[in-house]
Structures are given as C-alpha cells and as structure tokens.
Amino acid sequence: MILKTFGWSFAVTALGLVAAVLYGGWTGFGVVAILSILEISLSFDNAVVNAGILKKMSAFWQKIFLTIGVLIAVFGMRLVFPVVIVAISAKTGPIEAVRLALNDKDRYQQLVTDAHPSIAAFGGMFLLMIFLDFIFEDRDIKWLGWIERPLAKLGKVDMLSVCIALVVLMITAMTFATNAHQHGGVHVDKAQTVLISGIAGLITYLVVGGLSGYFENKLEEEEEREHEAEEEARKSGKKVPAVVMAGKAAFFMFLYLEVLDASFSFDGVIGAFAVTNDIVLMALGLGIGAMYVRSLTVYLVRQGTLDDYVYLEHGAHYAIGALAVILLVTIQYEIHEVITGSVGVILIAWSFFSSVLRNKRLAAAEGQGSSGEKSEVSSGV
C-alpha cells in the first residue's frame, strides 16, 4: 500500500536529489532536502483538506484532480511561478531569467539580491495574513491555549488581521528607510518599493481567499440543491438525476480544490525564497515536496480516514508565521538558510509529538472510564 501510493514520490525524490548534487554539490543536496521538508510541512494541512473533499468525489474526478492537478501544482506553481516572480521583480523576461539562472549565476544572483526586498515584502505579507487569519479564528481544538484563547477573542474584531499586517508593513518600510538613510542613503528609494510590494502581497492574499470562498459557497449551494432534488424525487417516486447533479457538484469541488491548492502552493514558493534564491534548487525541492503532498492526499483518501494528529495544522501555521517574520527581517538583515529551514521542521515536530501525547492521554482516560464502568457492573451483580 505504501509503495503503491508513494512510489512515484520516492522515484522523484531520488532523481531530484541526484540532480541537486550534480547541479550544486552537497550544499545543493542540503538545500533541496530542506526545501522538500519545508514544502511537506507547510502543505500537510493542504493534503488533509484535499482528502476531506476528494473522498466525496467520484473516482473519475479524483483521477482528474490527481493528474491535471499534479501538472498545475508541480509544474505550474513550483516550476513556472518562481521564474515569473524573479522575472517580474528583476524586470527581465522569463526566458532571460531561466538563461541567467543556468548560465550566468553571478548576474542572476545579483538580480535576485537587488529584487529581494520587494520579494520578501510581498511574500512576508502574504504569509503573515495566512498566519493571522488562522490564529485569530476561534477553534475547538487549541494547541498553545495560553496564546490562542486571548487571540481568538481579539479575532472577533473585524479586519483586525489586515490592520495588524498593514502596521507591520509600515514599520518594516520605515525601518528599512531609516537604516538606509543612516548608511548614506543607499536603497532609500527602495523603501517605497517595499511598501508597494507588501500591499501587493496583501491584495493577492485577499483575492485568493475571496476566490476560495466563492468556490466554497458555490459548492455548498450545489450540494444543497442536489439534496433538495433527491428529497423531491424520493417523495414523488421519480428517478434522481444523480449523474448531472453529482457532475456539477464535482466540477465546483474541482475548481475549489485548484484555487485552494494554488494558494497553498503559493505560500510554499514564497517561503522558499527565504531559504534560497536559486531557481533550479527551488524547483527541485518544491517539486519533491509537492509529490509527497499529493501522495499523502491519495493515502488519506484510500485509507478512508483523516489523520488524528490534530495539532499538526497548528504547527504548520506557526511555521508559516515564523517564515513571514523571517522574510520581513531579511529585507534588512541576513539570516542563515539552515535557521530558516529548521524553524519550520522544529515547529512541525513539536506539534506532532504534542498530538501523540494528547492521543495517549485520551486513550488512558477512556481506559479508566471503561474500568470504572466494569467495577460498577460487578458491584451491582
């Protein structure tokens, strides 16, 4: 079962790591490995969400999502999108960006370095919004309750996450301008670029979130209509047009999943810029990670149950928040790639072990309850 589900992922991993060694030596190997783990950790909750929706779909639509969806997610978002980001931010064509990345690494590195403040501001704001919207939502299950309970109460204030994100962006841009001025005025003009790029990241998040919400509402409407049609047909004794209704519902599910998957892919790509500026290593690492996310989605669907490690989603979002802060800090200061990559892994591992301990406590409590019931029955007899 494991080999059948993860076989392609294992093969892509082997090929990707070999390519990383050939391209960038053992340093490239390490960067690709970190990016792969980072992508999996950031997108784990994506796999869980995908599995929850995919299990409601027919085998045909599952196959469509897991084939066409892979092409969009792996080749579109992980391979093409980083090139587009660099091409836009460095004001060069995508073909020229790829050529420079492969043939003139020094020039390419200089272009990316010059464009880094705008990339970091754009990505930092996008990731920060994901984290803030998560942390301000009141959830039944809380991981770090002493932090999450008061923040959930604050989250009742409308648009609080947007206000905080804008304040953080304003402070970042002002700090960047002040520090640049103190060092002779170099890059002072880029403070405005940082501000504009950050606002663009915020707008992008709001648009993606709006599209996801739109498709989710469409999906709910279609499911409601399908249910009403079934009830009406059952009362009248007529046949239910299941194929047509299921097809419509599945189609909106597919659209919703693609938008949702793209948004999760986007944060992985943006987060990767905090680890490396090398498009080739980025594409290899994110591609490997994306394959495992897809395999994990299939595994969860085929098992028929979602993973019960309930704090993993929290850990993934805390990792996103940490990456957002790191990206914004790297506008002005340099942070080592190992620190950037390890923060997310540590948070995911922490949330995983917290989930394991929670499950053990629940199992022990159930065991004690069962023992108490047996004692009462014995006493009664």
Report on this model:
By secondary structure, the chain is an all-alpha fold. The longest helix has 53 residues, at 2-54. It has helices at 2-54, 59-89, 94-103, 105-135, 145-154, 160-182, 190-236, 242-272, 279-303, 312-329, 337-380. Helices cover 85% and strands 0% of the residues. The protein is built from eleven helices and no strands. The protein is globular, with a radius of gyration of 24 Å. The protein has one domain (1-363).
Secondary structure elements and their pairing?
Blueprint: H1 2-54, H2 59-89, H3 94-103, H4 105-135, H5 145-154, H6 160-182, H7 190-236, H8 242-272, H9 279-303, H10 312-329, H11 337-380
In short:
By secondary structure, this protein is mostly helical.
Biggest beta sheet attributes? none
CA distance, first residue to last residue: 48 Å
The ordered string of helix (H) and strand (E) elements is: HHHHHHHHHHH
Computed structural class: mainly alpha
How many helices does DSSP assign? 11
Global morphology: globular
Q: Total strand count, please?
A: 0
**Mean of all residue-level pLDDT scores:** 75
Unreliable spans: 376-381
CA-based gyration radius: 24 Å
